[in-house]
Amino acid sequence: MPRFFTGDELGAIKSVAYATGGDDGKEWKASTSVLVSGSSSGRSKTVQKLALHRAGSDTLLAAVHADGSAAVRKLQGDSVPAVVYEWSEIRLKEKQRFVGLDLKESGAYTCTSNGALRLIKFAQDSPEPSSSLATLPMRLCEWRLSEDERAFAYGGDEVELSVWDTERAFSQEGAAPTSATTQSKKRKRAQELLHGELWRAKNLPNDHLDLRQPVHNTALTFLQPSPSPVHQHILAGTAQGALRRYDTRAGRRPVAAWKNVATSGINTVEKGSHDNEVFFADRCSTLGALDLRNGKTICTYKGISGAVTSVAPAQSFMASAAEDRFIRLHSTFGPPAEAGKNLDRKGEVLDKLYMKVIPTVVVWDASTDASGFIPDEEEEGVDEVWDAMEAVQSESEGEGKSGRRKEKKIRAT
């Protein structure tokens, strides 16, 4: 059964594990345990990002806080995890925040809204990790690392979606190579890109009044692995409630732009466990699933009264953290086999757990089996048998009635 880790506004980190219960086995029960206690100093210790990485039998959990502190802990069941590395992002300024965190075999990546990018390299022979620093543009809203760690992407307020080579971003900037055979158009475009930058999106054309459209990317996610850092498929959400799909090989503008997907700005987007499935949440209370083939919303989860700030897909399940103080467990079924068709079953809220402190982020532990949620096929089969029996009975009754009517007509004549 699925297990998740959550962080809240006071800096606490908790484990939430789900199991089925009840006489019919349909009820979901959540058990929680506190891994890291919260602070009494207010929101200065708010957990802004969580990231998890499994290395063999070890499970590492990284967390970054609003005051710039960060730590990587080694999980030990439900007991207090041991701190492996600790550091502080001194470049994090007042009113800035962490917009990205990822944990890989090589180390931990962090990025702040003012463009402070850091790689904490883990060294087995040294208790102190080494750091590599880089500087990105300011006013960032989201930063993501690709699955193979070779590229990362970001976007923000008046910051276009951009894809970078990870290794070059942390390397020293050198002189731009020149070649007599390089075309002038390619030279001009190369001069526009920063050192380490591979691709940058281009704004949409002016609107019907010939006014420039604002650029405000609030969320993004990589859609699929890529053999090359420069070839990426990315979905970005905007402050206007739109979702835009980019293919860096197809040009600088989105290959698909879906307007008014949400009623307000997009808070988060996450690729689902099924093909062509992505989850999105806005700044009101909308949490839904989208079909990437046509941009249509295939499912909207009901009963949420606060903005969802984080979602964690987990095979047949998904967890969400919302500002109404609830951690929710959702079922997921994926898009229909044929685009545009209706779903036989739609996702729903299976359980909601009230948290005393507003949760800010949730991640899946990626270890427990979360693929076992299957509709009650046996009961559905029984229902189909009973429905068939009722249909046969109604047909026989209908034949009897029609036969009696015929007899009455014959007698009347």
UniProtKB/TrEMBL annotation:
Gene3D superfamilies: YVTN repeat-like/Quinoprotein amine dehydrogenase. The lineage of its organism: Eukaryota, Fungi, Dikarya, Basidiomycota, Agaricomycotina. Component of the pre-66S ribosomal particle. One of its GO terms (cellular component) is preribosome, large subunit precursor. This is Ribosome biogenesis protein NSA1. InterPro entries: WD40/YVTN_repeat-like_dom_sf, WD40_repeat_dom_sf, WDR74/Nsa1. Belongs to the NSA1 family. Involved in the biogenesis of the 60S ribosomal subunit. Residues 403-413 have a biased composition (Basic residues). Residues 392-413 are annotated as: Disordered. One of its GO terms (biological process) is ribosomal large subunit biogenesis. It comes from Lentinus tigrinus ALCF2SS1-6.
